[in-house]
Amino acid sequence: MGCYGDFFEKAKPYIAMTSLQFGYAGMNVITKVSLNHGMSHYVLVVYRHAFATISIAPFALILERKVRPKMTWSVFLQIFVLALLGPVIDQNFYYAGLKFTGPTFACAMSNILPAMTFVMAVIFRMEKVDLKKVRCQAKVAGTLVTVAGAMMMTLYKGPLMKMAWTSGHGHAQGHGAEAPAAVAAAIDPSGREWFLGSLFVIIATLAWASLFILQAHTLKQYAAPLSLTTLICFVGTLQAIVVTFAMEHRPSVWTIGFDMNLLAAAYAGIVTSSIAYYVQGLVIQKTGPVFASAFSPLMMIIVAVMGSFILAEKIFLGGVLGAVLIVIGLYSVLWGKHKETQEKEEEEAMELPVASKANGSGIIYDDAVFIKEIAAVPAAGVGDECRKANGVVYKSSSSHGHGAAGAV
Fold it and tell me: One GO cellular component from the entry (predicted)?
């Protein structure tokens, strides 16, 4: 059972980040449907983070009431910037890009996230790059291959791929199933909207990478992930309200009913804001920002499959080849990160003090390290070598001129 427990403990970050990608993929598809039905993406951001705040605040108040650090102006400023980067800049620009393009394309473009995060982590000295080491070469090469795969999906279409689960779309549409086709309305790839959509997604991805970096720093000062998530969502809601009032002047845009718009806001808020921010924070705290961002390419593959089911999106050869490259790059980055973790564990193990026994008198460590267990009090006759004072045995060191102490 011990082996299985250790394996599960090491697998937790991988399972968590993979699960998040399924959550993000569902958000992309549902949100695309909502935006196509006329919902303002500014209003969607407000409702999304209102749902997120309400859903996670009770857990933060109860579970972290005894461990919540003191709020300082420095931490509050970081939370303000995190809310600006995530809920406001990232999501508004991403939703705008999603509306102008499509879920699969938007996800493909956002796969530059690992590259952006890796470069920023190197700039801020959160990641060390030694190209003489194979693990560093793997991370750099994996990042480049991931970006190449995303670019292939964007720039090269190739022939249409006929999937087994999409073969019935034409037959279904012939019998009046026009809704999927209407939802997946075609957009001219050479048009102005397509270009703007691409630009918006790139800006959103840059903001998201910045959030990864800053969140890793903030968690060191404010080690309460649930409370931090709640505050980011709450401050982000307030900021998004201000932005919405500035950009939307029609009161009717705030109207929401029991429809796809409500589902999109609730799903995005509960799953991909509150839960995702919290889980993402835990993973970043344990493994670092590059590891967390390296899973984003999986979302694109999931969205491509879900989009072909739900939105009747077409899958082309370029998308398949790009997806293969992205998976190769992803595992290259993860392998490099795994080797780095192994090296750190080995270095920490080598730094532990080495124990030795001396004539049955107890366990003796190097100088200046407390002896945690003494099997027996040293025999009489040791003289000046050992003396007992206040329940502590001190062993003098002839080579260093200071003593090593151990509790009796």
Answer: membrane
